[in-house]
Design brief:
By secondary structure, this protein is mainly α. It is 60% helix and 4% strand. A hairpin with a 2-residue loop joins strand 1 and strand 2. The longest helix is centred in the first third of the chain and has 38 residues. The chain is elongated, with a radius of gyration of 30 Å.
């Protein structure tokens, strides 16, 4: 079917389809409307198989007799125009497709949500495991490579928008290796724990109890055919927390990616210029200022997060369904696919940013030196404290004020107070530094490099355990 990109209402189906056609197609296999109907057909056929297994038929025979059944989603939509009920429309179409001996068992013992919730669990599971998790694995691998490459590259630390003590750029990136790595593991676990049901109109197996004296066993058999487990408790619907926990963790991962985008965006400011997004030779940054190299990809990731993250409130509200079920989530639940797709497009763009990121070690060094020895006020205060100087913090605060007023370096000011200078020299020698330490902020890196390498090794192993290593 030819798709007119300009006839779509959602940017997902024109702008993002055009930008990421392969990703859009891959997501569509699980999340578009054809996929929704296809998965519902799988659920209905699994129920048929469970019924026929009860009749003593071999599974291989059943599958052979049901092979070749094809239903065009447009057939279901045409039938729905008559029934005004999507699952009854699907059942009516399916009945005409299966062998005569199977027809009385189509949908027998099931309510619509036995099919819909089960199908949605499958398609969300498959979208996560076949598209989103591998995608996040690629992003995580790129973050690890970047962190390892820059593990020893000094960078001034920043807190509250102010220069703090030095770290390394790799250590700053390792924060995201750890944060995204933990979220990736949670998403893998939660996507594998989505559940289905075959418990009937109120969840008490009323209809199935007329068919078999072991209704829960039949539910287990039905769901085994689909690779799912049964919800611990069902009303007319699967208890919502299985899906909600997955979506909450997806939103957590979204926030991590947005935070990374924001950090990288700020590091591209003209007055900082420590990193740069890839900028193609033909790319334009401004319609009127030819010199501009805007960090638009990072800004785009953050903008997607702003668009989709608030939808988590709808997912929270979808927890509430009166008694055994109401329809107050019938519209809002349809937008889960949009949320997953929005996250996926943001993750894809973030991977493109990280994998092609330019790092300016020259500007990293320049910014580290801009305040010079002032960023070493902390170690000076600690060395004096260890040497027994009372009120060492106040002593150093006074020295930094003199430094700012006079422009004279801290080592020079310290030389005018021989007793303090001697204490510092003794303490520096104890930890293996000489007097040059106080004018060399790149020496004060703590365990930045070691922790970066440790975290990268740890999360490489975890990626391997998840089957997502590259």
């Amino acid at each position: 079917m030819n798709v007119d990109l300009f006839s779509n209402l959602s940017p997902i189906d024109h702008r993002y389809r055009n930008t990421y056609p392969e990703l859009h197609e891959n997501l569509g296999r699980y999340l578009d409307e054809r996929a929704a109907i296809r998965y519902q057909i799988q659920a209905e056929l699994a129920l048929l198989k469970a019924h026929m297994l009860r009749q003593g038929k071999e599974l291989s025979t059943i599958e052979h007799e049901l092979a070749g059944i094809e239903i065009d989603p447009e057939e279901v939509y045409r039938e729905e125009e008559k029934t005004r009920h999507n699952i009854r429309a699907l059942v009516n179409v399916l009945v005409e497709k299966v062998p005569e001996a199977y027809r009385r068992y189509v949908h027998l013992g099931a309510t619509s949500m036995d099919i819909v919730d089960t199908a949605n669990a499958m398609r969300l599971r498959d979208a996560m495991q076949q598209v989103v998790l591998p995608q996040l694995g690629r992003l995580q691998n790129s973050l690890i490579v970047l962190a390892e490459n820059e593990a020893a590259t000094p960078q001034v630390g920043r807190t509250h928008g102010q220069f703090a003590v030095p770290v390394t750029f790799g250590f700053a990136i390792a924060s995201y290796v750890s944060r995204l790595g933990q979220s990736l593991e949670a998403l893998s676990r939660l996507s594998a724990d989505l559940r289905g049901k075959l418990a009937g109109a109120v969840g008490a197996y009323n209809a199935l109890s007329l068919i078999t004296d072991r209704p829960r066993e039949m539910e287990r058999q039905y769901l085994d055919l689909l690779g799912l487990s049964a919800a611990e408790y069902s009303s007319q619907i699967v208890m919502p927390e299985y899906q909600l926990r997955l979506l909450l963790e997806l939103n957590t991962a979204f926030g991590i990616i947005a935070n990374l985008a924001d950090d990288l965006r700020h590091l591209q400011r003209s007055e900082i210029d420590e990193v740069r997004e890839y900028f193609s030779p033909t790319q334009v940054g401004s319609s009127t200022m030819p010199q501009k190299r805007n960090p638009w990809n990072c800004e785009h990731v953050k903008s997607l997060w702003k668009t989709f993250s608030p939808r988590i409130m709808s997912f929270y509200m979808d927890q509430i369904s009166e008694h055994q079920r109401d329809l107050s989530n019938s519209a809002s639940a349809r937008f889960v696919a949009d949320f997953v797709a929005g996250f996926s497009f943001a993750a894809e763009r973030m991977h493109s940013i990280v994998s092609k990121l330019g790092v300016s070690r020259k500007h990293l060094q320049h910014n580290l030196k801009r305040l010079g020895d002032l960023v070493l006020a902390e170690p000076l205060y600690i060395l004096l404290s260890l040497g027994g100087v009372r009120d060492a913090h106040e002593v150093v605060r006074r020295l930094t004020l003199q430094r700012e007023e006079s422009g004279r370096p801290l080592p020079e000011l310290l030389s005018e107070e021989p007793e303090l200078q001697k204490v510092v020299q003794v303490q520096l020698a104890k930890v293996g530094y000489d007097a040059s330490f106080l004018s060399s902020p790149e020496q004060y890196l703590g365990r930045s490099e070691q922790r970066t390498q440790e975290l990268c090794r740890q999360y490489r192993t975890r990626l391997q355990q998840l089957g997502l290593a590259q």
